[in-house]
Specification:
This protein has 282 residues and is α+β, with helices and mostly antiparallel strands. 50% of the residues lie in helices and 21% in strands. It has two domains: 161 residues, Jelly Rolls (Sandwich); 105 residues, Homeodomain-like (Arc Repressor Mutant, subunit A, Orthogonal Bundle), CATH 1.10.10.60. The protein has eleven helices and ten strands. The radius of gyration is 20 Å and the shape is globular.
Length: 282
């Protein structure tokens, strides 16, 4: 049974329970030190600074961080910060990981900041946050299932990352972490600048690696090329605007980074299976 708790005071993470969701609203700036179990930290409003393993990581709104078990952490929290903490029992993580890999190991997650908009974990967190805020009865009724599905999603993405790094013959934890961070920066840049003209040259200069290496690394770790990923997120944004806005198709094409309405229409039909106007009419 997954426990849920809301706290509007200083949380005592030293007494944290495993398989628990904790919602906190911090009434003042505070510093907290504790030893973590496997934990996912998701910021709804504000920011948190985490210090552990000789590194400092700042997590902002709509970002999350997965921490490994037995990490000694100091958290600096700004006043007014709101967030969800998911405390994952090592035995649950071990069970799910072993089921999917047949390896009797405890996984080691790459402790890097991620945006909720860039992967399946983020989409799941957005859904949980929405249910918690706007459908609390449904959230509490489904809490066990949501928690297990989140754990499954976390493990699935980690296994995929491990397999792709293995294909690249990269073994060292610090190297994998640094490379994954560059790919996440690339994805964030693409999301933040999708309405602008973007080339592989632009990405290469922004991220600070060669065009060839960025293209190869991004493709190996995500399963698609940087520019195909850009097309995907542009089309997803266009679909959202076609459903929920009254902007013209020309305006939507421009807002989503397509340089002509004909290119937008042809690309949309190729990937979605119908024209933008047909999609809107549905």
């Amino acid at each position: 049974m997954v426990q849920f708790e809301e706290i509007t005071d200083i949380p005592d993470y030293t007494n944290q329970l495993e398989n628990k969701i904790l919602y906190t609203i911090h009434p003042k700036t505070v510093s907290i030190s504790y030893e973590s179990t496997y934990t996912l930290k998701y910021i709804i409003e504000g920011e948190k600074q985490y210090s552990f393993n000789n590194q400092d990581i700042k997590v902002l709104k709509n970002q999350y961080l997965i921490l490994n078990s037995k990490s000694k952490i100091t958290t600096e929290v700004k006043r007014g910060t709101k967030g969800l903490s998911f405390f994952l029992a090592p035995e649950l993580i071990h069970t799910i990981y072993s089921y999917h890999t047949n390896k009797k190991l405890y996984p080691e997650f790459l402790e890097v900041i991620q945006e909720t908009s860039t992967n399946n974990i983020g989409l799941f967190l957005d859904n949980i946050s929405y249910l918690f805020t706007y459908a609390p009865f449904t959230f509490k009724h489904q809490i066990d299932e949501l928690f297990i599905q989140l754990c499954e999603t976390i493990i699935s993405e980690q296994i995929t990352i491990d397999e792709r790094f293995s294909n690249l013959k990269i073994i060292k934890y610090d190297t994998k972490k640094a490379l994954l961070q560059r790919i996440l920066w690339t994805k964030e840049y693409l999301h933040d600048n999708m309405s602008k003209p973007i080339s592989l040259e632009t990405l290469s200069k922004t991220i600070g690696v060669s065009k060839y290496y960025l293209h190869r690394l991004f493709t190996e770790l995500t399963g698609t090329t940087p520019l195909k990923y850009l097309t995907y997120i542009r089309l997803e944004e266009a679909k959202n605007k076609l459903r929920h806005s009254k902007h013209s198709i020309f305006e939507i094409a421009t807002e989503c980074g397509f340089d002509s309405i004909s290119y937008f229409s042809n690309t949309f039909k190729k990937y979605v299976g119908c024209s933008p106007s047909q999609y809107r009419s549905k």
